[in-house]
Amino acid sequence: MSELDKRSVVIIGAGPVGCALATLLRRQGLEVDVFEREEEAAGSGSGNSFNLTLTSRGLDCLPRPVRRRLYLQGSVLVKRIVHHRDGAISTQPYGTTDSHHLLSIPRRVLQAILRDHALRSGARIHYGRKCVAVDTARPAALLEGRDGATAWVQADLMVGCDGANSAVREAIYRTHPEDMWVTRDTIDHGYAEITMEYRDADPTGMHLWPRGDHFLQAQPNRDQTFTTSLFKPMERGAPRRQFSGLSSPEAVHAYCASEFPDVFDRMPEVGQELMSRTPSRLRIISCAPYHHGRTVLVGDAAHAVVPFFGQGINCSFEDAATLSGLLESARSGARYADGAVMENIVEKYSGTRVAAGHALAELSLRNLQELSAHVTSPSFHERRALERRLHEQYPELYTPLYQLVAFTSTPYDVAQQTHRRLSSALFFFSLTTL
Ligand SMILES: Cc1cc2nc3c(=O)[nH]c(=O)nc-3n(C[C@H](O)[C@H](O)[C@H](O)COP(=O)(O)OP(=O)(O)OC[C@H]3O[C@@H](n4cnc5c(N)ncnc54)[C@H](O)[C@@H]3O)c2cc1C
């Protein structure tokens, strides 16, 4: 690659978002080059093996053939199935119509489908190329190859789809700290995957064991397995990263036997698993704006949120569709290589997506309370039932927050504001009318 290597659109990172964006841009006929630090055989994406839940908000941003393949491989979940400590089971529908469901899909399957569509659409994916610096003035990225050699690649538009530890974001922040702010936070909770036998489980719901400040979650797969994760606060000041109170296999067994008695016998390996796997931290990374010059951040590079609303990748696909839509609508008469046109496009993109990303970060953190504790409380159920009745009677006046967030394209920030406004009205309504 020479110093003058010039491309049209360069995407850093061939994770799910980089591949989805590449496909959308290729559909407009743009030349797209994607540079990925991992080797092709290793696959790409964040490397975690958990399932991702997609909702219509994110799915509708993807081309129809991609959606079709995702539905063939994923599991449709229409409700939460709550396992109470006393063995009772209750269910909560995600919405009020058939389209109100989650599509749960293993991350590696999602990644493989999106990569395949990016390649089929004509995007070039270059593996083993790590972005180590960005010059937003050109814009150009410095890429390090397998042999350690580096070379610049220049583009009309440079897109960072390189995940929560984005090198593109860090390069902008390091070189232009006056133009971008970045905050990074971790929460007390961590998560770890464990193995739970499936045995005649209900395959149409997300199974949840909410227990105060911690919970177990199991997502059924098409092959009659569960993808199961424990979310729990971590031990502060421990020599190695571990869940609080779970420092030995015996402690893990005692904990699972008392907290999850109905499925304890389905987790024979749990003691050894939680001792050998270091729980992962959950991070929140926010920044603004999402661009500098003609360099722009999309997906987790722009906003890493905690996963308690299951919307991180849905929001990221919405980012990709927004950027792609702006490029398409500016197409007639405009030359992409015209820097001013491109700068205007990315400024507009950042203008709409920053508010959405920040609102989602707040909504996601707040939902931890709901998943850990509220879903077992009778008043929570009464409120949800009231919200559903209200929505059925006055759909134009009231839509529950979960539905607005997961199943509409109402911007996250607008959904959040609307919900705040209607919450107090709902309380008054419940006292006086129902
Ligand atoms: C536990 C957990 C559960 C989640 N569950 C859900 C869910 O149910 N629903 C949902 O919507 N979201 C969920 N999310 C969020 C979702 O995982 C992310 O939003 C999504 O993975 C973001 O994709 P991405 O392509 O932006 O980043 P990544 O998946 O991190 O991909 C980034 C890519 O860039 C590459 N890369 C990184 N640095 C460089 C570099 N310097 N040069 C070149 N390449 C580079 C990486 O190798 C990788 O391929 C969850 C997240 C977590 C942690």
TrEMBL record:
The cofactor named in the record is: FAD
Sorted alphabetically, which Pfam families does this protein's record hold? Answer: FAD_binding_3
What top-level branch of life does the organism fall under? Bacteria
Q: Name all FAD-binding domain ranges.
A: 8-334
Presence of keyword rRNA-binding: no
Please provide the record's keywords in A-Z order.
FAD, Flavoprotein, Monooxygenase, NADP, Oxidoreductase
What's the protein name? NAD(P)/FAD-dependent oxidoreductase
Q: What is the lineage of its organism?
A: Bacteria, Bacillati, Actinomycetota, Actinomycetes, Kitasatosporales
